[in-house]
From TrEMBL:
<dbReference type="InterPro" id="IPR030388">
    <property type="entry name" value="G_ERA_dom"/>
</dbReference>
<keyword id="KW-0342">GTP-binding</keyword>
<keyword id="KW-0547">Nucleotide-binding</keyword>
<dbReference type="Pfam" id="PF07650">
    <property type="entry name" value="KH_2"/>
</dbReference>
<comment type="subunit">
    <text>Monomer.</text>
</comment>
<feature type="binding site">
    <location>
        <begin position="29"/>
        <end position="36"/>
    </location>
    <ligand>
        <name>GTP</name>
    </ligand>
</feature>
<dbReference type="GO" id="GO:0005829">
    <property type="term" value="C:cytosol"/>
</dbReference>
<dbReference type="GO" id="GO:0003924">
    <property type="term" value="F:GTPase activity"/>
</dbReference>
<keyword id="KW-1003">Cell membrane</keyword>
<keyword id="KW-0963">Cytoplasm</keyword>
<dbReference type="GO" id="GO:0070181">
    <property type="term" value="F:small ribosomal subunit rRNA binding"/>
</dbReference>
<dbReference type="InterPro" id="IPR005225">
    <property type="entry name" value="Small_GTP-bd"/>
</dbReference>
<dbReference type="GO" id="GO:0005886">
    <property type="term" value="C:plasma membrane"/>
</dbReference>
<dbReference type="GO" id="GO:0043024">
    <property type="term" value="F:ribosomal small subunit binding"/>
</dbReference>
<feature type="domain" description="Era-type G">
    <location>
        <begin position="21"/>
        <end position="211"/>
    </location>
</feature>
<feature type="domain" description="KH type-2">
    <location>
        <begin position="242"/>
        <end position="324"/>
    </location>
</feature>
<keyword id="KW-0694">RNA-binding</keyword>
């Protein structure tokens, strides 16, 4: 006979008997739906660094929720934070691949706006991803009254029925209510954690993750996510169009990000120096292109995205370097942030 455990009728199994779970989630939704704010409310301001990244994902980790019973890893959907690319054709490959690879998708719909064509577009795409569980998250609930919220929850339910999506859950949250209640920045909880239902969201996501040990060490967090995200944006731009030729041969390291000195306060400029690492000298031509044109385009493109991300004008200085066989060399890999 197994060990007996005492349970009150409504209680959950205790932490000791519940299996540990670990897995990946991504938040999708149209621009301004509240995805970033929700991510921050769940994980605090600290964001995962990409060293020791498990082989299971090549997606940018936005944050990790560490709990005694689970590790919830929130990943970015490449291209999703840019509306232009969201509606672009890459949605059909990169984003769909991400959606199929994560363990749960959170579809964010703001409570204060009627479900529109942008939401429907994403929902239709979601309907095509059969295997991954989908949670509908009605965000910004602090902006509406109870009646409007109830109507929105019903509308989301109906949207699912209409498109043949079976929501694993439909949950209302307010990320700002959680914040105002005074979250501890330590990612370990503290005052006001329950506010705005953000913790409940984590409670609902966790059971949808596979059983397994933590994938990242608990201390694997940094206060400086920008550098990592900037590198990822450059890498994405550098890979565009040459993915077939150089699928995994590019790594990007941001060496330095410094505000330019002697700039007037209203005209700041951020100097970013980054290296694009390739494996072999023969790949240099592919990255740089005839007369350096391709590298220049990569610079222009990623600079625009970096500026949008950081909200400041940027001077981007890109250099291509050969790091021989970096994929096979653990020392190089560590240096390159893998
Ligand atoms: N009142 C209120 N505002 C919120 C809440 N969550 C997000 N917002 C605001 O809504 C706006 C958009 O939020 P983001 O988190 O940037 O939305 P996003 O989906 O990440 O947007 P993109 O990066 O453009 O895709 C910001 O101005 C937030 O401050 C919330 O729970 N309550």
């Amino acid at each position: 006979m197994g060990a007996m455990s005492v349970r009150t009728p409504s209680s959950e199994p205790s932490e000791a008997t519940r299996p540990h779970r670990a897995g990946f989630a991504c938040f999708v939704g149209r621009p301004n739906a509240g995805k970033s704010t929700l991510t921050n409310a769940l994980v605090g301001q600290k964001v995962a660094i990409t060293s020791n990244r498990p082989q299971t994902t090549r997606h940018t980790v936005r944050g990790i929720v560490h709990r005694p019973d689970a590790q919830l890893i929130l990943v970015d959907t490449p291209g999703l934070h840019k509306p232009r690319t969201l509606l672009g054709e890459r949605l059909n490959d990169v984003v769909r691949t991400t959606w199929a690879e994560v363990d749960v998708i959170g579809f964010c719909l703001p409570a204060d706006q009627k479900i529109g064509p942008g939401d429907r577009f994403i929902a239709k795409e979601l309907a095509g991803i059969k295997k991954t569980p989908k949670v509908a998250i009605v965000t910004k609930t602090d902006l509406v009254d109870g009646k409007a919220l109830a109507e929105q929850l019903i509308a989301v339910d109906q949207l699912g029925k209409e498109l043949g999506i079976e929501w694993a859950e439909i949950i209302p949250v307010s990320a700002t209510a959680a914040e105002e209640a005074g979250r501890s920045p330590s990612n370990k909880g503290g005052g006001g954690r329950g506010a705005g239902q953000v913790d409940l969201l984590a409670d609902l996501l966790v059971p949808l993750l596979p059983e397994g040990p933590a994938l990242y060490p608990e201390g694997d967090l940094t206060d400086e996510p920008e550098q990592v995200m900037v590198a990822e944006l450059i890498r994405e731009a550098a890979l565009e169009g040459v993915r077939d030729e150089l699928p995994h041969s590019i790594a990007v390291v941001v060496e330095e990000m410094l505000p330019r000195e002697d700039r007037p306060a209203d005209k700041p400029l951020l100097d970013i120096h980054a290296f694009v690492y390739i494996e072999r000298p023969s790949q240099k031509g592919i990255i740089i292109g005839p007369k350096g044109k391709r590298l220049k385009d990569v610079g222009i493109k990623s600079r625009k995205q970096i500026e949008a991300l950081l909200g400041t004008p940027v001077f981007l200085d890109l250099h291509v370097k050969v790091a021989k066989d970096w994929q096979r060399d653990p020392r190089q890999l560590r240096k390159l942030g893998f």
